[in-house]
Specification:
By secondary structure, the chain is α/β, with parallel strands linked by helices. It has a domain at about 1-175 and about 200-230 and about 295-310: NAD(P)-binding Rossmann-like Domain (Rossmann fold), CATH 3.40.50.720. The chain contains eleven helices and 13 strands. A seven-stranded parallel beta sheet has the order 3-2-1-4-5-6-11, sandwiched between helices. Strands 7-10 form a two-stranded parallel sheet. Helix 2 (about 55-60) crosses helix 3 (about 80-100), helix 3 runs parallel beside helix 4 (about 135-155) and helix 8 crosses helix 9 (about 280-290). The radius of gyration is 20 Å and the shape is globular. About 45% of the residues are buried.
Length: about 325
């Protein structure tokens, strides 16, 4: 099968690329100018240099594909202004979808994020029917990107899955590195009792689930939203314990009282739903104060694939990788 993949050098994209290559697919990778392609060169048929917001580069990458995986996106750590989120996560998503339709490609898998739900108001399970409520510019841009994709493919012959992975982790992940470092160094700070649940999906599982989404496209789905991820849950405290076992440490846990922070946090989150500010310190508090777990049972039903990597196993590999890299 001929595949176009954006975001091929990213944390998740590189894992999906490896999976596609091992299955023998011919891959065209759209890669930004200046990005190192040494690690992927042997696995792709061709590299197209360009930005996802550049319609010409996107058109060249999509040409001849039978399925398009759009994983390129801008995350908070790499943006300094909301315009950057708009250009990559909204305009880029639209360009890819438009090029996919014009090229007559039958299948498109768009990778969004479960973060679009913001801080859910817990009246029940959060699933695909729950209304997204972004609380920062990143989340708002990812939701707007989904809307742009759905509009671009409407009425066409292209089937699209709007996949929303939960938070990812794994060897090489920079987002969870601060937690690994804190535990390895023996001192961790938490807010409250550390009992808020969290839901992490190993990057290899996320790649497998996105790969399965392309098969589901064969059923003729049209802009269907699908939450994908692990069904395993942890709490902040249990996650710290898992990391500590992997790191061979017994960290001191400094507990900050919940009440003084929770009031300001709730007020800021309410305002943020209207203003969508740039990600900041209050987003970090979400981990300690908000239950952001989601129901991924629909993916299990329609894809016939479930996450396979146990959290303890994945964390152990991530800690070992970080140590080998000299990051702990």
């Amino acid at each position: 099968m001929r595949v176009c993949l954006t975001g091929a050098t990213g944390f998740l994209g590189a894992r999906l690329l490896a999976r596609l290559a091992s299955d023998g697919h011919a891959i065209a990778a759209l890669v930004p100018h200046g990005e190192d392609t040494t690690a992927i060169a042997a696995r792709v048929e061709r590299v197209v240099r360009g930005d996802v917001a550049d319609p010409h580069a996107v058109r060249d990458a999509v040409a001849g594909a039978e399925v398009v995986f759009h994983l390129a996106g801008l995350v908070p750590a790499r943006a300094s202004h909301r315009r950057e989120f708009e250009r990559v996560n909204v305009v880029g998503a639209r360009r890819v979808a438009e090029a996919t339709v014009r090229a007559g490609v039958a299948r498109l898998v768009h990778c969004g994020t479960a973060a679009v739900y913001g801080v859910p108001q817990r009246t029940g399970t959060v699933d695909e029917r729950t209304e997204p409520r972004p609380v920062n510019a990143y989340q708002a841009s990812k939701l707007a990107g989904e809307h742009a994709v759905a509009a671009a493919v409407a009425g066409s012959g292209t089937s699209v899955v709007l996949a929303r992975p939960t938070a990812l982790y794994g060897a090489g992940d920079r987002a969870t590195l601060p937690l690994l470092r804190a535990v390895a160094r023996g001192r961790v700070r938490i807010v409250g009792d550390g009992g808020v649940p969290c839901q992490l999906t190993h990057v290899d599982d996320a790649a497998a689930l996105l790969h399965a989404c392309a098969e589901w496209c064969l059923d003729g789905v049209s802009a269907d939203v699908l939450l994908v991820g692990s069904e395993e849950r942890a709490t902040e405290r249990s996650l710290i314990e898992i990391v500590a076992r992997a790191a061979g440490t017994t960290p001191r846990v400094a507990v900050f009282p919940r009440a003084p922070l929770a009031g300001a946090w709730r007020l800021q989150r309410a305002i943020a739903r209207r203003l969508h500010p740039m990600p900041g310190r209050f987003d970090g508090l979400d981990f300690f104060l908000a239950d952001r777990t989601v129901d991924v049972s629909k993916a299990r039903r329609v894809l016939g694939v479930t996450a396979q990597v146990a959290l303890a196993d994945g964390v152990r590999d991530a800690v070992a990788h970080a140590r080998r890299a000299g990051l702990l």
